[in-house]
Design a protein that fits this description.
By secondary structure, this protein is mainly beta. Helix content is 12%, strand content 52%. Strand 1 and strand 2 form a beta hairpin. The N terminus and C terminus are likely disordered.
Length: 153
């Protein structure tokens, strides 16, 4: 019995590094105003090996999708995508006007400064799924988090 338990613990430790192969930095969402039903989440994602972001979920929204924005016939279009490729060793930025996580049918408004939980689901090159939890800071519209060092108005 002790051997079986030890093997189970060892197996869980071996499986754990798969989740560590993706690093998410600077996650944030746009805060909302009352009655607003959707917002975007943005972040930088870097994978040690080839992987894909395949879905996302959050308790703050009934529908969460990975989206891309693109220009078609001089019109900006947004659409859900099945997956977002994460090439090994390269940072993929989810940002306004590009790839992002769309939070739709919001349960309640998202106030500036709130920590919004988001669960990201990835698929590694080996086909195995793994998830990563992030807390995204809610920022006011127009605040992308960049600093204007030394710049005064």
């Amino acid at each position: 019995m002790k051997t079986r338990f030890a093997l189970a613990v060892a197996a869980s430790l071996i499986a754990f590094p798969a989740a560590a192969q993706v690093t998410v930095t600077d996650p944030w969402v746009r805060s909302t105003v009352p009655a607003q039903k959707a917002t975007g989440a943005f972040m930088k994602v870097k994978s040690e090996g080839d992987a894909k972001l395949v879905s996302a979920a959050s308790p703050v929204a009934k529908v969460v999708e990975v989206h891309e924005m693109s220009m078609k016939d001089n019109v900006m279009q947004m659409r859900a995508i099945e997956s977002l490729a994460l090439p090994a060793g390269k940072t993929v930025e989810l940002k306004p006007g590009g790839y992002h996580v769309m939070l739709m049918d919001l349960v309640k408004p998202i106030d500036k400064g709130a920590a919004v939980p988001i669960t990201l689901t990835f698929v590694g090159k080996d086909g195995k799924k793994f998830t990563q939890e992030v807390k995204a800071e809610a920022r006011a519209p127009g605040d992308d988090g960049s600093k204007h060092k030394g710049h005064k108005h």
